[in-house]
Amino acid sequence: MRTQVAIIGGGPSGLLLSQLLHTKGIASVVLERRSRDYVLSRIRAGILETGFVNLMREAGVAERMDRESYVHDGTVISYGNEEFEIDFKALTGTSVIVYGQTEVTRDLYDAAEADEGRVITEVSGVMPHDLETDAPYVTFMKDGKVIRLDCDYVAGCDGFHGVSRQQIPEDKRREFEKTYPFGWLGVLSETPPVHDELIYANSERGFALCSMRHANLSRYYVQCPLADKPEDWSDERFWQELKRRIPAHHAENLVTGPSIEKSIAPLRSFVCEPMRWGRLFLCGDAAHIVPPTGAKGLNTAASDVHYLYHGLVQFYEEKDNEGLDRYSEKALARIWKAERFSWWMTTLLHRFPDQTDFDLRIQRADLEFLRSNEAAQRVLAENYVGLPY
Ligand code: FAD
Ligand code: DHB
User: Fold this and answer.
1) Mean pLDDT value across residues 8-30
2) Residue ranges of the FAD-binding domain (predicted)?
């Protein structure tokens, strides 16, 4: 088999890149080890920046998103019973939308289906080869057969645990990591959202987030110890804990119901440098992870896709390598700013086991400064709606 761009991983990064290339007549094949249904069952991000929305439009897959998503012009931040609003629209002139990662992925799979063979699911043993030559290839197994896919370039879009990043020799790769001593327990429930905006809550009992997917589908999170398992959290225990972490008048309005999904995710900051090795380009979680506070995970994946897509188009249409040669530098410059923002939002809003009374006073001062200072609010808003590409 031969294609122009072999894409490892059929999550949002790989599928979006493939779809964008398709609009320019550049051929790609996406290799995904799971089934489509498995990928679509993963409940993850919910907030999309304008940059992401524009890429979906450019890729020609925005019709349902434009119809069904909700525009959010601001967010609430609370600490104890105190709360204030950050008005993105007034501060930056722009907003974010609520549209689940599951829906993004579904739209991209549906679009790819019209083009048979572009996405190959349930493959195993995916391995890129000869990345430092101008004739790289990828081998994989499908239905018991080993297949070789020759290509010009390989996009490593296979998430944090994928094989792509490992292809950069250890002495050429630098990894920066910070882990956090807690996780997020997430619950999805078919209940109306507690408020029409998101609520990011700092409380004595730990962080909580009230989010949503639509008018009758809510997504809530509470900070929990890393050792906890979803089975430790009955629905009753979850709702009680959430109510204790958000301002009382919101807790009174909270409509509870059975959870339809419950999972725990650890929090991590991680960056791999460089993001390019020979003919391999890393995109999304394969190269970097942010803690979810601030909703940057999926959005940073999209900015990588933007830079790589434009670099590839420049190469195929103009025979110019400039965009590809500068890919790692451009992507990382934006990634590190999202890493800083996500780390800061996490630090501002969570309870850390080793926090001293001094640390707690500093955290409160940070919140009160944010509440009263428009410049500080603008910094948050500009980062939240997404820095320019
Ligand atoms: P992924 O979505 O991880 O996709 C990678 C794909 O590659 C997967 O489909 C995987 O099956 C496939 N793959 C892996 N290895 C191989 C291989 N060897 N061969 C072939 N295929 C392979 N972000 C937010 O903004 N908000 C959130 O609330 C949020 N919650 C999250 C919860 C969890 C549990 C996780 C893990 C992430 C969360 N994120 C969240 C982050 C966000 O979901 C990711 O940033 C986003 O999924 C990145 O997309 P991606 O395509 O780069 O990687
Ligand atoms: C969601 C997740 C986030 O990490 C976030 O900051 C906002 C919303 C969500 O899943 O809806």
Assistant:
1) 98
2) 2-342
Check whether residue 67 and residue 194 sit in a common domain: no
Q: Model's pTM, two decimal places?
A: 0.97
Does one domain contain both 252 and 280? no
Task: Return the CATH number at 369.
Answer: 3.30.9.10
User: What is the predicted pLDDT for the residue at 199?
Assistant: 98
- Mean pLDDT over residues 20-37, rounded? 97
38 with 161, same domain: the answer is yes
* DSSP for 53-121, written as a single string: HHHHHHTT--HHHHHH-EEE-EEEEEETTEEEEEEHHHHHS--EEE--HHHHHHHHHHHHHTSTTSEE-
Q: Say how far apart CA 199 and CA 250 lie, in whole Å.
A: 10
Q: Does any ligand 2 atom lie closer than 6 A to the CB of residue 295?
A: yes
Q: CA-to-CA distance for 287 and 280, rounded, in angstroms? A: 12
Element spanning 327, H or E = helix 327-349
Indicate if the pLDDT at residue 209 is higher than 90: yes
Name the DSSP class of 167.
G
How high is the ipTM of this complex? 0.97
Substitution candidate for ligand 2 out of 47, 262, 267 with most atoms within 8 A of CB: 47
- Parent domain of 228: 180-266+354-385
Instruction: Domain count for the chain, please give it.
Output: 2
For residue 353, list its beta bridge partners.
Answer: none
Residue 116 has pLDDT above 90, yes or no: no
Work out the pLDDT band at 335, boundaries 50, 70, 90: very high
The percent of residues above 70 in pLDDT, for the chain, comes to 100
Q: Annotated catalytic residue: which of 296, 306, 330, 350?
A: 296
49 CA distance to ligand 1 centroid (A)? 17
Query: Token pair for residue 182?
Result: 């807690």
CA atoms of 212 and 25, how far apart (whole Å): 37
Assess whether 172 carries a catalytic annotation: no
Contact 131, 154 (CB under 8 A): yes
Same domain, 41 and 146: yes
Annotation says 384 is catalytic: yes
Q: Is 198 in the same domain as 157?
A: no
In the numeric block, which tokens belong to residue 171? 């002495």
Query: 46: CA distance to ligand 2 center in Å?
Result: 5
Average pLDDT over residues 239-251: 98
Closest ligand to Cα 207: 2
Clarify whether 291 is annotated catalytic: no
